[in-house]
Amino acid sequence: MMKRKKISVIFGTRPEAIKLAPVILALKKDRRFICKVCVTAQHREMLDQVLEVFGIKPDVDLNLMRRNQTLSDFAARALVAIDKYLTNEKPDFVLVQGDTTTVFCAALASFYHHIPLGHVEAGLRTWNFNAPWPEEANRVLTSRIGTLHFAPTMGNRRNLLKERIATDRVFVTGNTVIDALFLALAKVKKCPPDIDGLPDFLQPGKCNTAGKKPRIVLITGHRRENFGKGFENICRAIAVLAKRFPDVHFVYPVHLNPNVREPVYRILGQHSDKSSFCIHHSELENVHLIAPQSYLSFVALMNRSSLILTDSGGVQEEAPSLGKPVLVMRDVTERPEAVDSGAVKLVGTSRKSIVRTVGNLLTDSKLYKRMRHTRNPYGDGKAAERIIKVLVRFIRSQTH
Ligand code: UD1
Ligand code: UDP
């Protein structure tokens, strides 16, 4: 019988929480492990939304978010706080996910404590430290000091091997986001959520007075390299499209980063938004600026939409499972698999390119159908299971 090992799962933002939730739930059920959850709360409200959906209660909440935090300020506070946490908790193993500042700081602190580190969603690369910034650097640096690397795809594994990470430390598992998506879809089907801030006729499962379901283009965005001009272009493109397609509804759950909210509300809203969770109506009747949605509501919204316009990493991975075409407002992606399969297209952040490509998809049904009928290259919903198996093998090998 293996002695129970203590694994600390450390995370801070919405996507990390979504993608680690299936792993935490599996670890908590497994008697071979003592699973401790530590959150930096790099995100506060958007993290709490996810914890609530999955019923996860952190053992330690470092509560580090500050309004409009800078990269260095947050990184410095996170490194010190995680270091202290590791000193007190003394886990046998640390698990992180993705490429945020929390991930890099947790990796560095674990390295300083000689604690082996597992990196979920390892090996994604654009090979360009400026895009996405600072995430590409965070994940490359985490790979350098990590112990076990859980690569979602064979391509991610090849990237790690190119960087001379040892072959026997890299495991292809699929992406845990698909596990999370399947868990959420089961809940959404049982009990369809209401979307705050949307009129009745746009709610999932509802129709308008003519008995029709108007088309929805769902939008999200938050990349730092798009701050300023990029976001201005994106918003102006949405305004042009909303005027050109008055029967299509543009639904935009606006990220809480002030650098995102400012241009979005200035260009698309009626007045600027000072508080975080306020709902404001746009002058354009078919543009709906709403608060960040809980994971269940967002999954229901993705499912209800015709098309998704985003710069998000996770959304690029989820949408193909739902058969939704995705236009990515970036010049490069570390997730080329869905681009290759035809479900995802890069449109950059130029106003012209966004307007033209969305317009084409809204008017050309053949083109639209081609993007819908694809399979998902990111997983089968069993990534967490595979990760646990690897962890058991690793811990056994350490104790013998
Ligand atoms: C962060 C990650 C990014 C990830 C994204 C997911 C870094 C450097 N960035 O970007 O990799 O893709 O999360 O969404 O690690 N805020 C709130 N409440 C929240 C969340 C954010 O008010 O729940 C506001 C705060 O003012 C905060 C600011 O947004 O200071 C920025 O948050 P931060 O985590 O530093 O950057 P994101 O843009 O969210
Ligand atoms: N998401 C959510 N509510 C929203 C918007 C997105 O729950 O209002 C989910 C989405 O389904 C995906 C994740 O958040 O799983 C993506 O987070 P984000 O785009 O903030 O970060 P990224 O994936 O780009 O790091």
Topology (elements, then pairings):
Layout (H helix, E strand, L loop, with lengths): L4 E7 L2 H16 L3 E7 L5 H10 L5 E2 L9 H19 L3 E5 L3 H12 L4 E4 L14 H11 L2 E4 L2 H9 L7 E3 L3 H15 L25 E5 L8 H16 L4 E5 L4 H11 L11 E2 L5 E4 L4 H10 L2 E4 L2 H6 L7 E3 L7 H6 L2 E3 L4 H13 L1 H8 L10 H17 L1
Bound molecules: uridine-diphosphate-N-acetylglucosamine and uridine-5'-diphosphate.
The site of uridine-5'-diphosphate has 16 residues, from helix 1, helix 10 and helix 11.
CATH homologous superfamily grouping of the largest domain: Glycogen Phosphorylase B
Number of strands: 14
Judging from the principal axes of the Cα atoms, what is the shape?
globular
The percentage of residues in β strands lies in: 5-15%
Distance between the termini: 12 Å
Could you list the spans in which at least 5 consecutive residues all have pLDDT below 50? Answer: 271-279
Physical arrangement of strands within the biggest beta sheet: 3-2-1-4-5-6-7
Quick overview of this protein structure:
This protein is of the alpha/beta class and 400 residues long.
Brief descriptors of the model:
400 residues, alpha/beta, Rossmann fold, 2 domains, 7-stranded parallel β-sheet, 7-stranded mixed β-sheet, 15 helices, 14 strands, globular, binds uridine-diphosphate-N-acetylglucosamine, binds uridine-5'-diphosphate
